[in-house]
Amino acid sequence: MTKYNTLLLEVDKKIGILTINRPKSMNALNSELLTELEQIVEEIETNKDIDVLILTGAGEKAFVAGADIKEMAEKTAIEGQTFSKLGNTVFKIISNLRQPVIAAINGYALGGGLELALAADIRIGSENAVFGQPEVGLGIIPGFGATQRLSRAIGLAKAKELILTARHINAKEAADIGLLNQVVEAEKLIDKAKEMANHMLSNAPLAVQYAKKVIDEGYDMPLNQALTLEENTFGLLFATEDQKEGMQAFIDQRDAQFKNK
Ligand code: CAA
């Protein structure tokens, strides 16, 4: 029995699959869901059985069709700001998770749904996936990170085009502009996400986690400071058993047995 009304978590062989589960509302993000999401991702951070997280949406039509418009409709300015802060807080926890996060996007990823996908490290879309930031058509702007993360993912010009026009794009166009890492047939989506997760899991877990951290933290730093972060973290990994094992396995011409130590 799960303690969450709006989420499902399955864990198998070091892969967690977290499903946003409000299919009757196209998995729209309301306050209850965001509060549960905050709680579950904090638990995932320290869950030793999960080294890669896959995020997906329940049902066949939507990954997440955005923040819940019915809940937002009557909000005051302060309530709107609080809601945006809640979404940003949760998505920052997701993007800062020690584990790599793969978004497996199985349909509409609109507004807050695309913003959730942008908080992931890797985005794999099904052929029927649809992307967009429809907020300006609702009289608001993106509030869960897209004004900042979309331009970092696809460049300023394309981010402005998508946000200012609010137009939908299909999976092919999303891949062409670098929003998606891969496009796959809908029925193969989770298998492809697991395949990517297993590639990651075949490497030294601490090295994978620190690589993610240094890429993300260095991105917003001046280059020289970021390169110093890289040097220090590179050095730190020589203190791990897995560095000794990885290099010895290469020298012995055998597969490495990593211990996450
Ligand atoms: N919020 C609340 N309910 C939503 C929703 C949303 N974002 N998206 C879909 N739903 C609900 C619909 O109201 C409908 O509910 P009922 O059955 O009770 O009428 C149900 O989900 C099914 O949706 P549709 O009947 O509309 O399904 P469709 O296949 O005709 O269309 C869709 C699908 C194109 C995704 C359409 O539902 C849609 O455009 N949804 C809204 C998308 C959107 O504008 N998202 C941005 C929200 S703003 C935001 O996210 C702000 C932010 O940055 C934080």
Word description of this protein:
The structure is a single chain. The protein has eleven helices and ten strands. By secondary structure, it is α/β, with parallel strands linked by helices. The strands form two sheets. Strands 1-2-3-5-7-10 form a six-stranded mixed beta sheet, with helices on both faces. Acetoacetyl-coenzyme A binds at residues 25-26, 28, 65-70, 87, 108, 110-112, 115, 134-135, 138, 142-144. Acetoacetyl-coenzyme A (CAA) binds at residues 25-26, 28, 65-70, 87, 108, 110-112, 115, 134-135, 138, 142-144.
Helix-strand makeup class:
alpha/beta
**Assembly form of the protein:** single chain
| Helical run tally | 11
Instruction: Give the mean pLDDT.
Output: 97
- Helix % is 40-55%
Ligands in the model, by name, code or SMILES, are: acetoacetyl-coenzyme A
